[in-house]
């Protein structure tokens, strides 16, 4: 069935929303088996641990590794029978906490281009030593440590943030508030974050779930009086290619095979930093011309070129990987990317979002073109999110490709 024009709200597809986040100790059953999520400490894995993760993906999973929008790494396709051995391997290689309790601490998301000794990474080290004293918090709770001159993690959800004021001073920002709390130094920041975590729980935060939903005013000892520095349009989000710390590679639609990752983890790579932007920062010698040109050709497995059209696309795992999906997403995304090879990567006008259902896991904001799966077909949404009202429904893959080549929704 094909339809045109703005539809009524009844056309919005309804996702089944899950309220918890999987981990390694609490894997999630999905369409292709268990999903096991690994949280790299301080947002980084040394090369040897990253290689161990590749080995784990091949031995116990489907061989794929995904990078999530919260900068976690995950394995797919793990069986119930294989999971205990996988966990023993992950713990032995420093890829999982020794027990489920250790995994329940709030996630620390670091601005990925930190330098040794800077405020972002020092705050993370101080916090790690305090987190054992923190109360139990909701699964999705997280902290963004983003203390460079201008924030780079503003688009990533976080309940507490360490940022800078317009004047350059340190601030702690509780999500949902108009102003932030100035602090004298990193120790004071960590102390304030710890007190705010306890205050959140004591004032009903567990029922609210997230800091932004807790409407209680901040206590007097955390008076918010300062504006934070805004991210500027030219704040660099790591682009594939050379970087002062090494080299950036993109994971098409957030996933890559373990073998492709192993191939770029050459001896001169010391570690891998995760990011919330579906790209990894490979730590190494930035000036090494071989490091930075050898894999520069377009590649199906990894993105090495800032002009790659897949950088302007978001696609969730879709069918058969996610049980909630009724359509495939990644194959269609790749097919559409090939028809946009002459695009200009992130600077290409408008984004494409392909979502297996209306939950829109791959992108929460609007996209110029969004394709949402429903009952085995695709809805077309223009300038909207996965659960917005479509301009056309019931499309097959050939309809989508035809639209993509003409950009003319009136022909549908
Ligand atoms: S958006 Fe994609 S990954 Fe998320 S629940 Fe729907 S089908 Fe699954």
Could you characterize the architecture of this molecule?
There is one protein chain. Helix 1 packs antiparallel against helix 7. This protein is an alpha+beta fold and 412 residues long. It has ten helices and 20 strands. 22% of the residues lie in helices and 22% in strands. The strands form four sheets. It has a five-stranded antiparallel sheet. The N terminus is likely disordered. It folds into four domains: 95 residues, Sulfite Reductase Hemoprotein, domain 1; 75 residues, 2-Layer Sandwich (Alpha-Beta Plaits), CATH 3.30.70; 109 residues, no CATH class; 58 residues, no CATH class. The site of iron/sulfur cluster has 13 residues, from loops.
Short description:
Helix content is 22%, strand content 22%. With 412 residues, the protein is α+β, with helices and mostly antiparallel strands. It has four domains: 9-15 and 324-411, Sulfite Reductase Hemoprotein, domain 1, CATH 3.30.413.10; 28-102, Alpha-Beta Plaits (2-Layer Sandwich), CATH 3.30.70.3340; 114-222, no CATH class; 241-253 and 261-305, no CATH class.
């Amino acid at each position: 069935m094909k339809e045109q024009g703005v539809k009524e709200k009844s056309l919005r597809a309804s996702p089944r929303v899950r309220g918890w986040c999987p981990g390694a100790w609490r894997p999630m059953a999905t369409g292709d088996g268990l999903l096991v999520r690994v949280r790299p400490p301080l947002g980084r894995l040394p090369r040897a641990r990253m290689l161990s993760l590749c080995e784990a993906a091949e031995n116990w999973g489907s061989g794929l590794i995904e990078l999530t929008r919260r900068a976690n790494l995950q394995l797919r396709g793990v069986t119930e029978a294989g999971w205990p051995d996988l966990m023993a391997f992950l713990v032995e290689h420093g890829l999982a906490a020794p027990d489920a309790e250790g995994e329940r601490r709030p996630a620390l998301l670091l601005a990925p281009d930190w330098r040794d000794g800077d405020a972002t990474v020092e705050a993370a080290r101080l916090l790690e030593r305090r987190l054992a004293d923190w109360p139990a918090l909701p699964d999705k709770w997280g902290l963004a440590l983003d203390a460079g001159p201008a924030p780079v993690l503003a688009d990533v959800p976080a309940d507490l943030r360490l940022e800078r004021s317009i004047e350059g001073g340190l601030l702690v920002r509780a999500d949902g508030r108009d102003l932030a709390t100035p602090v004298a130094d990193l120790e004071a920041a960590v102390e304030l974050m710890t007190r705010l975590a306890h205050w959140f729980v004591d004032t009903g935060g567990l029922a609210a779930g997230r800091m932004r939903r807790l409407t209680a005013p901040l206590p007097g000892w955390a008076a918010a009086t300062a504006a934070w520095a805004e991210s500027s349009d030219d704040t660099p989000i790591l682009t594939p290619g050379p970087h002062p710390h090494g080299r950036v590679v993109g994971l098409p639609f957030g996933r890559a095979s373990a073998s492709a990752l192993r191939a770029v983890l050459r001896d001169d790579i010391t570690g891998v930093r995760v990011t919330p932007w579906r790209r990894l920062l490979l730590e190494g010698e930035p000036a090494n011309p071989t490091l930075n040109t050898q894999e520069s050709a377009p590649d199906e497995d990894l993105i090495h070129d800032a002009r790659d059209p897949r950088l302007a696309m978001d696609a969730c795992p879709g069918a058969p990987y996610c049980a909630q999906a009724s359509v495939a997403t990644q194959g269609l995304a790749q097919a559409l990317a090939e028809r946009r090879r002459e695009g200009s990567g992130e600077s290409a006008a408008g984004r494409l979002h392909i979502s297996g259902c209306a939950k829109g896991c791959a992108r929460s904001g609007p996209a110029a073109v969004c394709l949402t799966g429903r009952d085995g077909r695709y809805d077309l949404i223009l300038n909207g999110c996965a659960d917005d009202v479509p301009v056309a429904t019931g499309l097959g893959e050939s309809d989508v490709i035809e639209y993509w080549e003409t950009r003319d929704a009136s022909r549908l």
